[in-house]
Amino acid sequence: MTNLEKRGTVKVINGRYRPNGNFHYIYPNTPIYSDSGELMGVTNPRDITHIHTYGGEAHFFSSLKDGQLWGTRCDNPACEHTGTVNLPYKTYCPDCLKKATPVNLTAVANSTAKVHTFMVTERTGAFNTLEKPVRFINIEFYGVATILMGYLSIGEPKIGMRVVPIFRMLDPTFTILDLSWVPEETPSENLPSGFSFSK
Fold first, then answer.
1. N or C, which end of the chain is more exposed by having fewer CB within 10 Å?
2. Taken in order 142, 144, 145, 146, is the CA torsion positive or negative?
3. SS (H, E, C) 19-78
């Protein structure tokens, strides 16, 4: 039996990751039989814990638990596109490669976010923890040069529909799944468990 008490954890000491514990568990193989009972193979189940580094984007993911949505702006006067605001969060300006300035876009999202386009799917890839069908939406914001992909938690998406962000502030995952969207004027009592409107 696997001892999950020693599951891998990571601390940062002197600016460096210091892993501790087990990051790879091997479980017993199980046989795979054909309809006639002939052995065809075995399963090789594994449990692997990956370390995923956010780097300069950590501020974006950390702010979701506080009900805030952050993007970035290029403030380099020598850049051809100085003043350009990006969401998703970009640590560096994609045009001049200078470090971008974080900007709080929560109010902009609450007042101007709308569905640019959408798709509804039963196949979710990295989002396989979401209830299906998943209503993926691309969201546009006033004054923001880029489009953000997200998912609609309530209702059916329509192009041009006004939406507002909701945030998983109770037991956050510190992933993009802590941010979702609902139609404007959705009552707070209808929000998914653990989610709230911005503060």
1. N
2. negative
3. EECECEEECCCCEEECCCCCEEEECCCEEECCCCCCHHHHHHHHHHCCCCCEEEECCCCC
Look up residue 70 and give its amino acid: W
Amino acid at 127: F
Within 10 A of 126 (CB to CB), how many other CB atoms are there?
9
Cα 141 to chain centroid, rounded: 18
What pTM was estimated for this model as a whole? Answer: 0.82
Instruction: Domain ranges for the chain, please list them.
Output: 4-48, 55-197
CB within 8 A of 151, min separation 6: which ones?
127, 130, 134, 135, 136, 137, 180, 181
Q: Both tokens of residue 92?
A: 């560096």
In CATH terms, the superfamily for domain 55-197 is Nucleic acid-binding proteins (2.40.50.140)
Burial of 25 (0-12, 13-18, 19+ CB in 10 A): middle
